[in-house]
Write a structure and sequence with these properties.
single chain; 55 residues; mainly beta; two-stranded antiparallel sheet; 4 strands; binds iron/sulfur cluster
């Protein structure tokens, strides 16, 4: 799923949890796993799930 970083920050990260075991939001470019979809850097995706197939 390719989305804008501002949108990703409202999606849950499958890896991050708070100290009381609640899910945390995607950290976007603050995370080493964030990947830009192309050089325009308008949209990106979580590299943990591999490269998006479409969209
Ligand atoms: S880019 Fe990083 S913070 Fe965002 S969902 Fe993926 S692993 Fe979590």
């Amino acid at each position: 799923m390719k989305i804008e970083e501002s949108e990703a920050k409202f999606k849950f990260c499958p890896l991050l949890k708070t100290s009381d075991d609640k899910m945390k939001m995607c950290q976007g470019t603050m995370c080493m796993m964030w990947r830009w979809a192309d050089e325009s850097k308008e949209k990106g995706y979580c590299g943990m799930a591999g490269t998006p197939v479409a969209g």
